[in-house]
Each structure stands twice: as structure tokens, then as C-alpha cells.
Amino acid sequence: MSVPRPLRSLRNRLTLIFALIVAGAIAIVYFYVTPRLEDQLVQQKLTRLAESAKRESDDVIRDWILSPDQKRIEQATLTAATRSSAEVTTLTVSRSMEQVLDSGRVTADLRPAGKPATTSEVGDAVCTGI
After folding, report:
1. pLDDT band at 117 (very low <50, low <70, confident <90, very high)
2. Closest to 125 in 3D by CA, of 46, 116, 72
3. How many domains are contained in the chain?
4. Residue 107: count of CB within 10 angstroms of its CB
5. CB-based burial label for 64 (10 Å; 0-12, 13-18, 19+)
6. 30-89 tens-digit pLDDT
7. Is the pLDDT higher at 98 or at 81?
8. CA atoms of 93 and 102, how far apart (whole Å)
9. Whole-structure pTM value
10. Domain range spanning residue 36?
């Protein structure tokens, strides 16, 4: 008895070659294109989120300055979250912290060479999250 050899027929060889070409194309897409696309999408999302944070934080800060009413701040935070399609957390500054900020005793390493930051720079850093 003879043992059948599966790759002897032309049809089986062509099927195997075609399957290897398709598998190679899928592997190229999976290992080369997908990670680059993922990095670009993540970077794009972070950029849009930073732009939304800058745009929406002004409204929240303005509402807090005009009327530090908890309900108004919560509404402004909810609106900012809805507009930016992201989770938004509002951190309030207590009155004692405001006095420390206004006293000019606050220093932060926001500038090169460790120069002390101004109160407005500290406030901007806190608002933008850096």
C-alpha cells in the first residue's frame, strides 16, 4: 500500500501557498500597523482631552470665583464632563489655602533652575493639572 502524499497535487500546493500569503499579510497588519495606529489614537485622545481641559476649566474657575456655591460648581463640573466626554474632578481650594497663595510664600518648581513661581503660575498649574 502506498501512503498518500498531501502536497503532491497542485491544488493542495496552491491552497497552502495562498494560506501562507494571507497569514503573512495578517501578521504584517497585526504587528506593524496596529501598534502605530494605537499610538496615534492615544496621542490624539490625549491632545483633545488637554484642549478640553483648558477650554472647560475657564468656565469652572469663573463660576467658582463668581459664586463659590457648591451646587453651581457641581453643575459647571457636570457640564464640563459632558462637553469633553471625560471624567472631570473639581478640587476646591480652602480659604486657608487661598491665604497661603496670596501671601506669596508658595514656591513651586515650575520654572527652570528652581526659580520660585508666582501665585498665578501656581494657580495655573493647579488648574491645568501639571
Report:
1. low
2. 116
3. 1
4. 13
5. middle
6. 898 888 888 899 999 888 888 888 887 777 777 777 777 778 778 888 888 888 888 877
7. 81
8. 12
9. 0.47
10. 9-128
Query: Who has greater pLDDT, 30 or 128?
Result: 30
Helices (H), ranges, the chain: 10-28, 34-66, 70-84, 95-103, 119-128
Longest dimension (CA), the chain: 100
90-52-99 Cα angle (round to 5): 35
Which amino acid makes up residue 40?
A: Q
Q: Crossing angle for the helix pair 34-66 and 70-84, nearest 10 degrees?
A: 160
Instruction: Give me the residue label for grid cell 494657580.
Output: 123
What are 114's three cell numbers?
A: 528652581
Question: Do the domain assignments include residue 3?
Answer: no
Mean pLDDT of the chain: 75
Q: Which residue has the cell 481650594?
A: 93
Within a domain: 4: no
Owner of C-alpha cell 467658582 = 64
